[in-house]
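Researcher: Structure for this, please.
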Amino acid sequence: MSQFNYDLAFSRNNGITNAEEQTRLKNATYAIAGMGGVGGDYLITLARAGVGNFKISDFDEFEIKNFNRQYGATMSTVGRKKMDVMQELALDINPEANIKTYPEGINENNIDDFLTGVDVFVDAVEFFEVKVHRLIINACMERGIPAILGAPMGFGVGLLVFTSKGMSFDSYFDVDYDAPLGLQALKLALGWAPAGFHLKYIQPAAFDLDNRKGPSFASGCKLSTGMIITKAIVALLYPEELKSTPHYTCYDARLNRLKRGYLWMGNRNPLQQLKFFIARKRLGI
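Model: Predicted structure, token format:
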């Protein structure tokens, strides 16, 4: 059996990262909440970048319905904890990695421990867990930890960066937490991908937001991984390049359309309010 060698394993990074930057990746700690549709792929991609320390969370198990998009979902992993499977896969890439796990998910009781010593947070929380997104993003901003958010949208992705220099979660998304879940999720979706490219081809009947249902495709998840993890590495190595909310990036590979915008006032922007009204009518919520 071959002996693991960090420098050899990640030597092909050289030229994209230099020796000092690779050492910073090796010593960095990334927190990832969620190991499902995109989170597992985030972990594996960061592990292949040579990141040496992780904090990961998930309380769910793999199911057959996860097969269309989730990295660790196979017949041999059905019924197993997503977090356990992904931890094993990451350690098979880098046996020297330090991975701390949070099998209960992230909540007010463990958020301090989860973020202690973290350099960058990558949000892969279940899309419909709006208040969990809010909890972690707020905690990151209080601690000066850059938080990278991305959501696969059809064949595309919407990308946001939250830092202490930008808009807060509540100021940007403008969610009414007393509203039904479907309306909260709709606010999140509109703010996450303001360009709305995916709406040109995704069928409204595929959505049932109140019951936590929305379509997702593997290539969109892979695209999300590439864009989000690139931004997460930028956050560590080149933080001066980050543009925080209300800046956003949307890209759709099917339509080959890219938009890097500035959403003045976030979801309170009059155009966003109009989009919210139209989307509610189309979705019947």
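Researcher: Any notable elements?
Model: The longest strand covers residues 147-153. The chain has a mean pLDDT of 96.
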